[in-house]
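#structure-requests
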Amino acid sequence: QVQLQESGPGLVKPSQTLSLTCGVSGESITTNPSFWKWIRQPPGKDMEWMGTIGYSGSTYVVASLKSRTSISRDTAKNQFTLQLSSVTPEDTAVYYCARAQSAYGNDWVYRGQGTQVTVSS
């Protein structure tokens, strides 16, 4: 059973950088093939795929967030990280990390419980 756990601040000020980490147990993030995603759901809106880091370390980010998003990993700790810069209140959402079988889109096989992030001064 793969388990994922998001961690990070629940409150971020506008213009700052949001940083979230996903700790993974039960499977190595370098398993070939495997894809590790960040997905978010703003209040009252649909789930939005943000980006993915693949088993080889390749990254894929949705075009609308590409200029503000960085995804990295620490294979020794079996975790991956999302950094979203220049946040605004529109980035307020529940953020999820997930294990998927494809690089793109909202599909997932295992998902963390999610963490609420609020952007507010």
